[in-house]
Every structure is written in structure tokens, then in C-alpha cells.
Automatic annotation (TrEMBL):
It is an enzyme of class 4 (lyase). The keyword DNA damage does not apply. Keywords: Metal-binding, Riboflavin biosynthesis. This is 3,4-dihydroxy-2-butanone-4-phosphate synthase. Pfam families: DHBP_synthase, GTP_cyclohydro2. It catalyses: D-ribulose 5-phosphate = (2S)-2-hydroxy-3-oxobutyl phosphate + formate + H(+). In the N-terminal section; belongs to the DHBP synthase family. Pathway: Cofactor biosynthesis; riboflavin biosynthesis; 2-hydroxy-3-oxobutyl phosphate from D-ribulose 5-phosphate: step 1/1. Its EC number is 4.1.99.12. SUPFAM superfamilies: RibA-like (SSF142695), YrdC/RibB (SSF55821). Catalyzes the conversion of D-ribulose 5-phosphate to formate and 3,4-dihydroxy-2-butanone 4-phosphate. Residues 213-354 form the GTP cyclohydrolase II domain.
Length: 361
């Protein structure tokens, strides 16, 4: 994913500075706006004693390496108990030493990024924690592991991003927030980039969806035009129900709905999903224009509830891609969600008078 000269000309300066720093073997500050936190990030392949010692000194000392799925499988990195779906059992490079020194941990991180290394080159448990970055990176999951892995990939280096949560310089018993992280970066002459900026850059550089077909759909509420999309990364099929003229300066009413088989199709009263979908379609018809974006993720099972948590950021990105394909740049969310609104904003879609309620389904 390394960028060429033409792409560099249209790359935001913050993203470009971070890419150049990573490529030169330096650490950068990665800001997570959603969680008001930050990490020090560097390429595991170029990890040396100096950058590792610096990272340990200014973090909690918990060093991680974000790797893609193929490398996790190749090295047989198994999931850690209680560590979530991303965290793997900690490792040390098999070599003389305790594994805890900056030199030892630098060697372990570099080895994790070395495609010639195998499962037997590491002992377990150790002092470096591998993280599995979701396939598709920031295009499908706005996590710190995915952001760090994408950043190293953009720099043209092998898979493997070292990262550690930054500690507040003023209150070392707490983690650094957004403001403290930027102050720290300025004091140490480090490039700083946010997950949102990296996410927007990736969205601008590659389509998330491909338009497959457009057909008419008669319904009890009146006719809709249905546009079907295929997701590039997982081939999931999403559909948009469109009604009326979407052009003009007025924001387009938009409802985003996660597929719920029992609520939408079987009429279950255990959730409000079916009612929310019908209400949204009714509103669109009553207002004479609008969209219902119906998301159908591939291979996922999700209970009913709000589409308003970090795990749903990939679906929000899909929504942004669909709206941009339909030339919808200004929307009014019939059911608002912070994650959705943030992703739309990052993708260049203006959200006007977003409702404070839930995004159903």
C-alpha cells in the first residue's frame, strides 16, 4: 500500500509526515479521537534499542505488535485468554537474555515482522504482545491495531507495527488524552496523526463498495428504487431504498438500518427493528425524498440494539461510501449515532441536525 508520487501530492500533510517518519524508523504519535487516547507507533521491522527504550519510557511499558492475519497464522500466534479477539499470547525471540530489556524486546518485534521467522523462533509467554489486525484494516475496522498496521503498510515496510499506549507526561498515573498527546509530540518533535485522518485517507484512496444493480420495488408505502452494492473486502451485499429527488441544497433524510431477520422479516416484537424500518420508510415517503440504507454484513451475527459503538465503525464507513457514490453530500439522520456521524464527517459527508436517538436494527 506504499504511496507513489502522484498519491503523495494529494495526501494530507499529517498523514504524509507520519508515513515518512515510520519509513525512516522513527516513532509517531497516533491519536484515537473516539477514546481520547494515544499510542506511540513505529515499524516493528526497523525497531531498534533507542526507539524501543523511548517507547517504554513514555508508555506503560506494555509493548504490542500489530500483525496481519496471515502472519498471525504463519507464526501460530494463539489468542490470549481474556485478551479479546485481537490479543495473542505474548512472545519473546528465542535468544540469550531475559527478554525484558529494550534490546531484547526490539529484537522480538523485529523478528515478528520478519517473513522468514517461524513459530519455533519464539518462546511463550514473553514480553511482547502480538495483536491481530482485522483484514481490510481501517476500511473495515477503526481500531488502533488496524491504524498502526495500515500506517506501516503505507510506509512500504513489512507487516508489523510496534505500539504502546502513551502515558500523560503531567500525570504519569494516567494515560495521555488527545491534548496531552499532541503536546508531547511537539516537545519531542514527533509526527502526530489521528485514526480519523488515516481512515479518511484510506477511504479517499480506495472504494469500499461497488454498485451492482438498480431496480424498482413496489411496497405498501409506495414505490422505491433499490440500489444494490457489493462490499469490496468481504463481498457482503448492502441495499439502499431511494425515493424522490436527492439533489439540491437541503439535507437528504437518511435512515441506516442493520439487518435484523427476526424483527424485519418475521415480525418479532422482542425488538423495535421492524417498527423502526417501517417508520423510516414512511418518513421518507411523507417527506417526498430520502434514503434507507439497509446493511447486511457478511458472516456476522449481531443482536438488536444501537449501531453506535466502535465495533460498528466499519458499517458506518460502508454507509459513507454508499452516500458518496450516490452524490449525497449533506444528510439529516432520521436516527442519529455518534459513530456514524463521525465516519460520515471523516468521509466528507456533512451531517445536519442529526437526531439524538438510536440507529436501529
Amino acid at each position: 500500500m506504499s504511496i507513489d508520487i502522484t498519491t503523495r501530492r494529494r495526501t494530507p500533510s499529517s498523514v504524509l509526515s507520519a508515513i515518512d517518519a515510520i519509513a525512516a524508523g522513527r516513532a509517531v504519535v497516533l491519536v484515537d479521537e473516539q477514546h481520547d487516547s494515544a499510542d506511540l507507533v513505529f515499524a516493528a521491522a526497523t525497531a531498534g534499542t533507542a526507539v524501543t527504550a523511548f517507547t517504554v519510557r513514555h508508555s506503560g511499558g506494555f509493548l504490542e505488535v500489530a500483525l496481519d492475519d496471515a502472519d498471525c497464522r504463519r507464526l501460530r500466534l494463539t489468542a490470549a485468554a481474556g485478551g479479546g479477539s485481537a490479543q495473542r499470547v505474548s512472545v519473546d525471540l528465542r535468544r540469550p537474555g531475559t527478554g525484558i530489556s529494550a534490546a531484547d524486546r526490539a529484537a522480538t518485534m523485529a523478528a515478528l515482522a520478519d517473513p522468514e521467522r517461524t513459530h519455533g523462533d519464539f518462546t511463550r509467554p514473553g514480553h511482547v504482545v502480538p495483536l491481530r489486525a482485522e483484514p481490510g484494516g481501517l476500511l473495515l475496522s477503526r481500531g488502533r491495531a488496524e491504524a498502526a498496521a495500515d500506517l506501516v503498510d503505507m510506509a512500504g515496510l513489512p507487516s508489523g507495527a510496534g505500539l504502546a499506549a502513551l502515558v500523560s507526561p503531567e500525570q504519569p498515573w494516567e494515560m495521555a488524552d488527545h491534548g496531552a498527546a499532541r503536546t508531547f509530540a511537539a516537545e519531542h518533535d514527533l509526527a502526530v496523526v489521528s485514526i480519523g485522518e488515516l481512515h479518511a485517507h484510506r477511504l479517499a484512496g480506495r472504494p469500499l463498495v461497488v454498485r451492482e444493480a438498480t431496480v424498482g420495488l413496489p411496497t405498501a408505502l409506495g414505490p422505491f428504487e433499490v440500489v444494490a452494492y457489493r462490499a469490496v473486502d468481504d463481498s457482503a451485499t448492502h441495499v439502499v431504498m431511494r425515493s424522490g429527488d436527492l439533489a439540491g441544497l437541503f439535507p437528504v433524510p437518511v435512515h441506516v438500518h442493520h439487518e435484523c431477520l427476526t424483527g424485519d422479516m418475521l415480525g418479532s416484537t422482542a425488538c423495535a427493528c421492524g417498527t423502526a424500518l417501517t417508520d423510516a420508510m414512511t418518513t421518507v415517503k411523507e417527506e417526498g425524498r430520502g434514503l434507507v440504507v439497509y446493511l447486511r454484513p457478511s458472516g456476522t451475527v449481531r443482536g438488536c440494539g444501537l449501531l453506535d459503538d466502535p465495533d460498528d465503525s466499519d458499517l458506518a464507513a460502508i454507509t459513507a461510501a454508499v452516500l458518496k457514490d450516490l452524490d449525497v453530500a449533506r444528510v439529516r439522520l432520521l436516527h442519529g449515532a455518534a459513530t456514524l456521524a463521525a465516519s460520515l464527517h471523516a468521509a466528507g459527508v456533512e451531517v445536519v441536525d442529526a437526531a439524538p436517538g438510536a440507529l436501529a436494527g
